[in-house]
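Sample entry was shown:
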Amino acid sequence: RSLLTGERTALNFLQTLSSTATLTNQFAAKLKGTKTKLLDTRKTLPGLRLAQKYAVKCGGGHNHRFGLYDAILIKENHIAACGSITSAVAKAKKLYPNKPIEVEVRNLSELREALATKTNTIMLDNFSLKTIRAAVKINNGKVKLEVSGGVNLKNIRSFAKTGIDYISVGAITKSVMPIELSMLFEEKGS
């Protein structure tokens, strides 16, 4: 009776995690032979963050941040509130001197400003391939670069070939289509 009671919940859970790992594996396979690592995001299904993060690892991806507590990601609203990238990074370093800091940039001018702050990682948000290539050249290995936005199974390899360090893909945890699983009982005596 208990198996029948929990059947649907268990299957939903397994379907979601299996599809998360499967989709992650499809993306990770496209990166074979490059130095680029596939990262997940915090965009997970409610209540399933730890389980989905585990599924990402099982699928060959890497975990980015688990929450707001383990690294600082400075985004456009933080930059606007502080007045500049330089100011936002300085405040973050003062408040949390031992936490890694990543800055999201929207163009090459912001990239140059972020590089001057000696942040740990810079996220290139919705950059074209041409602009990513320019960013990799400007960076010249100074910090880790991450691409985010507009990445799919058809274009991920092109992004990786630019020499980028990381590609983050929210779809591997938030846009999964559950795979087909079922639980069948055998009749007694079969």
Notes: DSSP finds eight helices and six strands in the chain. The beta strands are 37-39, 72-74, 101-105, 121-125, 144-148, 166-168. The mean pLDDT is 93.
